[in-house]
Design goal:
Helices cover about 75% and strands about 5% of the residues. It is mostly helical. The protein has one domain. Strand 1 and strand 2 (about 80) form a beta hairpin. Helix 2 (about 20-45) runs antiparallel to helix 3 and helix 5 crosses helix 11 (about 210-240). The longest helix is centred in the C-terminal third of the chain and has 29 residues, at about 210-240. This is Permease. It comes from Virgibacillus kapii. Keywords: Membrane, Transmembrane, Transmembrane helix.
């Protein structure tokens, strides 16, 4: 816990300069929420992948897109991308564990507050109240907030730097295309096997097994967060920053 407190103190410097990013993030979440709200009933009756895609987007990388440019991952040298602020901090006498945790804290500030607001508003303005009890809806929220941890915390790792093909314009474009195709293929497989989408099944799990679904989601999120921190440390120790 002490490390997390020190990491928060370090993260405060960047967070204090990120208020514009927070405003844009909030506006983006509310904009997408308007689509999710009016489309829920149709989604539950007919199912369509667009709904799943936007839900997954909000609980993974949406917030990170809104970071101020000076804090985003940028090209440092030919074939090398990294977050400038982290490169600067790596030169200071700060333990790696603190630096790593500070990057995850910043990610959480760009995701959790807005996701919690979204889920609260979502409950009151959509027909989800007719489908899930309050207890089941809390389980539904925990499932998706946990997904934000084990999916979204992959992205702070990129702050540590990356070299190779994916740092070129062509490599980046191909990576995005391949990633989108992989998500589309995953959704397609789920629909083909079950006739329903990801959001639909999380509603079912939350309704039928709220306690079990919540516990499993939290456990997966906890171990994923630990694993991602360990992996980020390996990346930092592997990359040559000279």
């Amino acid at each position: 816990m002490k490390d997390w407190k020190e990491a928060y103190q370090l993260a405060k410097l960047e967070l204090s300069q990120s208020w514009q990013g927070f405003v844009f993030t909030f506006c983006f979440y509310m904009f997408v929420l308007s689509y999710l709200a009016v489309s829920l009933e149709s989604y539950l009756e007919n199912d369509f992948m667009g709904y799943d895609f936007f839900f997954l987007l909000l609980f993974s990388i949406a917030g990170m897109w809104m970071k101020p440019k000076q804090f985003q991952v940028q090209k440092q040298t030919e074939g090398f991308l990294a977050a400038p602020i982290l490169l600067m901090q790596l030169q200071l006498p700060i333990r790696q564990e603190i630096l790593i945790k500070s990057r995850f804290i910043i990610y959480f500030f760009y995701s959790f507050p807005w996701q919690i607001i979204l889920l609260e508003v979502y409950y009151f303005i959509t027909p989800i109240q007719d489908v899930l009890s309050l207890v089941s809806y809390i389980a539904f929220c925990l499932i998706w907030l946990s997904a934000n941890v084990y999916i979204g915390t992959v992205f702070p790792i990129s702050d540590a730097g990356e070299k190779g093909f994916t740092t070129t314009k062509l490599g980046t474009a191909l990576t995005v295309v391949i990633s989108l195709f992989a998500v589309f293929l995953l959704f397609l497989i789920i629909y083909a096997l079950s006739d329903h989408g990801v959001v639909y099944w999380t509603i079912v799990f939350a309704e039928k097994w709220p306690l079990v679904s919540s516990i499993i989601s939290i456990i997966i999120a906890y171990f994923a967060l630990q694993a991602h921190q360990i992996y980020m440390k390996k990346v930092i120790n592997k990359v040559d920053y000279v």
